[in-house]
Amino acid sequence: MRSSHPPLRFLVAESETQQAREKRRESVGRSSGETYLDILHRLVPDAACDRIQPADTDAALPPGLSLTGYDAVLLTGSPLHLYEETPETRRTVAFMRAVFASGTPAFGSCAGLQVATVAAGGSVRPNARRLEAGFARRITPTGEGRAHPLLAGRPAAYDAPAIHTDEVEALPPGATLLAGNRLTAVQAAEIRFDGGVFWGVQYHPEIGLDEVAGALRRQADSLVEAGLARDGEDVEAYAWQVDGLHADPTRRDLAWRLGLDEQVTDERLRQTEMRNFVEALGRGRPLAVDS
User: Fold this and answer.
1) 133 phi, psi to nearest 5 deg
2) CB count, 10 Å around CB of 154?
3) What is the topology classification, in CATH, of domain 9-207+268-282?
4) φ/ψ (deg, to 5) at 173
5) Which tens digits make up the pLDDT trace of 11-39?
6) Predicted local confidence at residue 18, as pLDDT
7) What's the rounded mean pLDDT across residues 63-91?
8) Residue 81 a catalytic site member
9) Is 204 noted as a catalytic residue in this protein?
10) What pLDDT, on the 0 to 100 scale, is given for residue 2?
11) Are 40 and 74 in contact (CB under 8 A)?
């Protein structure tokens, strides 16, 4: 891709705290940023990729580089609650405002969408209905979403890996809602602010099914408290099936028990939004709906 142009340069912004990064590595062997880096290297093998932890006090870009030196910034998921005033949330939101101001295109999943929302003047809240855990079901593109390149290739309704306790309450002025479902009104959106553009989703196109199983195990107590499981054994039984489908995506029996189709079991389809974002960059297109 882009053989006649310099390799793409990506900056992965990993807004997990150090404690959350370590907990995730213990669970699935990699932090959220490391998951992003792995997929980016598979999508664009010759890409140059850097990583920054904007929630950390010592976060800094590599020497000699600025945000304008990147083709795109990608924001990972995170357990940060953006409606809480903490040093970590303030630093992360300030970083995203700098990304918008730089004009560098950005993409984000889960908390990444929430960070961009707050940075541009919208709001985030705890889930209003209930915890969306494991998979977001029957995500439906809006009219604008059906025409938007972020969701190109997605069917009229689809499922995707998801686990989040917070959601976008109100998109910022000028944002475009691209998809939603029964539990979460904002599942995908485009946000334009201060000269920058962001494409984001509330779900996780970047994670593998093993990471879904790991997230379920890490949040087992919350799932029981929310009434989604009777006890830890229930959570483990469900996670075990998800792990089994990760090990063998052709297991039709497990896909049937979990109510999943190829939009989740097929890695290429599962990563649709990330692939669409990277391909838009590679074609040199502005990140906007064609007029």
Assistant:
1) -130, 130
2) 23
3) Rossmann fold (3.40.50)
4) -55, 135
5) 999 988 888 888 888 888 899 999 999 99
6) 84
7) 95
8) no
9) yes
10) 42
11) yes
Residue 1: per-residue pLDDT: 40
Q: Residue 260 carries which side chain, given as an amino acid letter?
A: L
**pLDDT tens-place string over residues 208-258:** 999 999 999 999 999 999 999 999 999 999 999 999 999 999 999 999 999
Strand ranges inside the chain, DSSP E? 9-13, 48-52, 72-75, 106-109, 123-126, 132-141, 158-164, 166-170, 176-180, 188-193, 196-201
pTM beyond 0.85, yes or no:
yes
What pLDDT is attached to residue 4? 54
CB 95 within 8 A of CB 57: no
Q: Could you give the 3-state DSSP secondary structure of residue 13?
A: strand
The phi, psi pair for 237, rounded to 5°, reads: -65, -40
Find the catalytic residue in 148, 164, 204, 246.
204
Of 88, 110, 132, 164, the active-site residue reads 110
The pair of structure tokens assigned to 97 is 């405002």
Q: Determine the pLDDT at residue 283.
A: 73
Q: How far apart are CA 200 and CA 155, in angstroms?
A: 18
Q: What is the DSSP letter of 156?
A: S
Q: Enumerate the domain spans of the chain.
A: 9-207+268-282, 209-258
Per the annotation, the verdict on 110 as an active-site residue is: yes
Residue 110 DSSP class: T
Indicate which residue of 34, 88, 190, 206 is catalytic. Answer: 206
- d(C-alpha 188, C-alpha 177), whole Å: 6
